[in-house]
Amino acid sequence: MSVKCRDIMWMMEDMAPAKYAEQWDNPGLNIGDPDADINKILVALDATENVIDEAIAKGADMIITHHPLLFHAVKKINYNMPDGRKIMKLIKNNINHFAAHTNLDAAKGGTNDRLADIIGLKDTSVLSEGQFDEIGIGRVGIIDGDTTMGMLAVRIKEGLGLDAVRVTGNLSRKVKKVALCTGAGAEFIDDAVKAKCDVYITSDIKYHEAQNAVFSGLNLIDATHQGTELPVVAVLADKLSLRLAAAGFAAQVLTARETLLFKQY
Fold first, then answer.
1. Secondary structure of the chain in the HEC alphabet?
2. Considering 40, 116, 139, 141, which has the largest number of Cβ atoms within 10 A of its Cβ?
3. What is the sign, positive or negative, of the torsion defined by CA atoms of 171, 176, 177, 182?
4. What is the pLDDT of residues 73-109, one digit of tens each?
């Protein structure tokens, strides 16, 4: 049985309701036709030109990403510019683009829960609560065993397939209560301090933000923006594939070939 784009949109809405998104965000169908027939879906973190080219090569008619392609009002579409080329390629090849961003961060089973699973956090709760009960950005939990900052840093590095992570504080310090936020979560450092966490895992931390955290007694692990979010792609693809099969739809779900942008030398 064929599936319409709107059917997939409803499945995504069920997994990551748009009402959970931050006001500045732009989740949902960024480009496309809700009534379009969908046979092949490519799931990725970003709608980069490489991902779009992969979708074209594989005959995908829908791309689902974590990051929206369109954040702000589009005033010009210049085919000689990266964003213009991406928009042109999507429209020219009849590829629909859908994004689940901060709503997927907040949703149960989303980016933050996936990172918590990789780290092995127990008894998790929300770091920064939103307007919905038990829904919000980030997670706080307990790590089992006698764990040090150094041991946790290695666990995160290996779990996320990274060359390295940035760490503040004493690597031999024992850690038990851990906070995390996938992507750029420095704005929630104060929440981690208030929760009396030993360490906060996020990314894109600036120097003075790190200073304030350390002076407040909070150690930090910066595991990169892409590194903390990329693991949700395979999870999202699996969940969507199962839902499509359960509903009797024959659409195929693929995961994009994405490589880490930053490497350590």
1. CCEEHHHHHHHHHHHCCHHHCCCCCCCEEEECCCCCEECEEEEECCCCHHHHHHHHHHCCCEEEECCCCCCCCCCCCCCCCHHHHHHHHHHHCCCEEEECCHHHHHCCCCHHHHHHHHHCEEEEEEEEECCCCCCEEEEEEEEEEEEEHHHHHHHHHHHHCCCCCEECCCCCCEEEEEEEEEEECHHHHHHHHHCCCCEEEEECCCHHHHHHHHHCCCEEEECCHHHHHCCHHHHHHHHHHHHHHHCCCCCEEEECCCCCCCCCC
2. 139
3. positive
4. 888 999 999 999 999 999 999 999 999 999 999 999 9
Structure tokens at 21: 């998104």
